[in-house]
């Protein structure tokens, strides 16, 4: 099966600033390009970090610090509030992905690192794009018929070698329903699991019978 790669979903025109960029220039860049984050790069195009609106917000919070009712800022917020250049404000090191990563690989890294975007670098670690959570979610906009065709051709036929007349798949709003019969009972969870890995699938329900029970009462 072919999974969509980060290189197909990423934005190639990445807004960047140098490490010495001043605070106001960064804010101006965000506004002019209508983005919520910029990449900080060195002269060779290697990513050093990311500056998001959240990284800049402590500066505004610090200006209201004289209110006694406000909670004391976290140490990192104090550091960000005192920063005036990109290298002092950025979140570093940059969390990066490769263009040939699958959506699942990128999503797992985002989740583990708790970030909203990944910088994409080539083999020389030069910045070539940026991918966001919204970009990764675009796979769920795939047409139902395209999903059904991939399940039929790639999962049922090419991978599992099942008779296309024996098992059918219907797809509605990304939800897959499997009907028919498979040769062995042990194949049922395999079919279901493989269908779930198809890009754009939201969920799978199976209504499959089997010809031979090769599972029996095994735990």
Contiguous uncertain segments of 5+ residues: none
Beta-strand proportion? 15-25%
The CATH class assignment of the largest domain is: Alpha Beta
Number of strand segments: 9
Output the structural class: alpha/beta
Radius of gyration: 24 Å
User: Could you tell me the mean pLDDT?
Assistant: 90
Name the helix and strand elements from N-terminus to C-terminus, one letter apiece: HEHEEHHHEHEEHHEEHE
User: How many structural domains does the protein architecture include?
Assistant: 2
Helix content: 25-40%
> What's the CATH architecture name of the largest domain?
Roll
CATH topology of the largest domain: CBS-domain
The dominant shape is elongated
User: Gap between N and C termini, in Å?
Assistant: 31 Å
Largest sheet: 3 strands, mixed
Adjacency order of strands in the biggest sheet = 1-2-3
CATH superfamily of the largest domain: CBS-domain
Instruction: Note the total helix count.
Output: 9
Structure description:
There is one protein chain. The model has no long low-confidence stretch (mean pLDDT 90). The chain is 37% helix and 24% strand. The chain folds into 2 domains: 6-139, CBS-domain; 142-212, Histidine-containing Protein, Chain: A (2-Layer Sandwich). By secondary structure, the chain is an alpha/beta fold. It has 9 helices and 9 strands. Strands 1-2-3 form a 3-stranded mixed beta sheet. It has a 3-stranded mixed beta sheet with strand order 4-5-6. A 3-stranded mixed beta sheet has the order 7-8-9, with helices on one face.
